[in-house]
Amino acid sequence: MQSYAVTARAPGKIILSGEHAVVYGRPAIALAIDRYATTTITPQSGYGIWFEFLNDELKHVATMEELQDLKTQISKRYRKFTVGKCQIRDVIRNPLELIQYTFIYLVEHLSLATKGGLKIQIELTLPIGCGMGASASVILSVMHALINYCGQTLTVDKYLYFGREIENLQHGRSSGLDLFLSLHGGCYFFNAGNANKRSLPNLPFVLVNTGKAETSTGECVESVAKHLQDGVLADEFSNTALAFDLALRQHNLAMVKECVRRNHELLLAIEVVPKRVADFIAAVEVRGNVAKVSGAGAISGDSAGVVLVVGEAEISDLVAEYGYTTLSVNGESSGVCLI
User: Fold this and answer.
1) Nearest to 310 by CA among 208, 180, 178
2) Structure pTM?
3) Which of 62, 226, 232, 330 has a CA that sits 20 to 30 A from residue 26's CA?
4) From residue 42, how far is each of 114, 148, 189 by CA, in Å?
């Protein structure tokens, strides 16, 4: 165990093609981006574990016993969710609970000896609830910081296994895609259980944040199931992702734009694009660009997280007209790491 601070950061991601369908094993393309969750662990006097989520100014100090009780309560809530007695948003109720659960889960599963008090501070440059993999980034940054603080190591497979067990509590059913991208960085084509690395795409794109979705990723996954379980729409998602991958490898911008347009139509079909966001995307298309929700979207409300806009036409006036904001991002080749 270290006697000094350890800091780890993990990148977020955007899905270029195949969101939702990837939960059912269909192809998807995703890109790690240079927005992060950063966790710093510092030794403290005493035996309390101090948690600080700096973005929301959430703070809480807990004993190991209190954290074990919280883990038990969250596990009970998840079991209620699995039998339809509560919603997924009732399982993990705020970012601090996700951080605390990740901590105590690892301590118990790896028999980590923390020896004394700790301060665990988390900060995000990722917006929460906007489809950019914030939950996975938080989980992995906490895991990596804690494991290194305690002088331990963990295999890639264990990072993914433990991470998915925890992320299930947030999303109901984790595809593992967000965790994989945050762990490895880069751009990957996922198909038939395989992750195939691709070059970071050189696309004229921008992200537009329409605001935090009213519904969680888990709620969207539940709602979308009725559309994708019969396979017809899922096949169309698959064909679009396959074409998108080919277009990227051939550096064919016209084909990429056509795939984004088709992907948007499929997201409309599974009802995760609120009308106001669909109207914005229609206005973007009039300019000659294309756009689609990048993430879970939303099944109610007016916001749907981030929208991926591809093309070179100027849209800043449209973004301002709708009260949205633009996020400047680049592809990130590195995954979770110490800094």
Assistant:
1) 208
2) 0.92
3) 330
4) 11, 12, 37
